[in-house]
Amino acid sequence: MAVSIRLSRGGAKKRPYYRIVVSDSRSPRDGKYLEQVGTYNPMLAKDDDNRVNLKEDRLRYWLGVGAQPTDRVARFLDLAGIRERAAKLNPKKGEPGDAAKARVEERAAKAAEAEEAKKAAEEEAAAAAAAPAPVVEEEAPAEEAPVAEEAAAEEAPAAEEVAAEEAPAAEEATEEKPAE
Q: Of 25, 63, 134, 171, whose CA is between 20 and 30 Å from 78?
């Protein structure tokens, strides 16, 4: 028979309370146990003395006869100084997953492309500012402006003449209808 020292859950829904029990490893979590050797109340503050209560002499006995504590109970025993727990080394514990790494690489690639585009735009702007500006003669625009005004003046009378010619014809048509 393999004996384990483990937690047995009690308490209400969303209000857990655990007994630290010695039981057969094949028995159900909250089922029959051999002996209760302590309690654990996770609802209390971490610095509260009543959060974990252990019967030290009974725990030492059961550890002496070969009972194996679960990881959580081993932590409690280590804090109480009953049994030292070897620290576990998990080098990948804080490392992000493959999908997160891929997202980081994509963001870095997009940021690098944006930086390159920004530098290229700055270089083009600097090149445009450094290049000599084309020399524009000031006389040419002054000559073009009167030509544009003359063209507009020529078009406007033509439009007025067409409107004047159409208007009398429309008036004559309206005068004839009532006469009939």
A: 25
Please check whether residues 74 and 100 belong to one and the same domain: no
Is the per-residue pLDDT at 161 higher than 70? no
Backbone angles phi, psi at 66, to 5 degrees: 105, 10
Determine, yes or no, domain membership for 160.
Answer: no
Categorize the per-residue pLDDT at 168 as very low, low, confident or very high, splitting at 50, 70 and 90: low
- Report the alpha-carbon distance of residue 69 to residue 6 in Å, rounded: 6
Planar angle of CA 127, 132, 133, nearest 5 degrees: 105
73 and 8 share one domain: yes
**Inter-CA distances, 149 with 144, 146, 156, 164, Å:** 9, 5, 11, 23
Domain of residue 109: give its range. 96-129
94-125: per-residue pLDDT in tens? 888 899 999 999 999 999 999 999 988 888 88
How many domains does one find in the chain?
2
Q: What is the CATH number of the domain that holds 32?
A: 3.30.1320.10
76 and 107 belong to one structural domain: no
Amino acid at 120: A
Q: Report the candidate in 35, 37, 16, 18 with the shortest Cα–Cα distance to residue 27.
A: 35
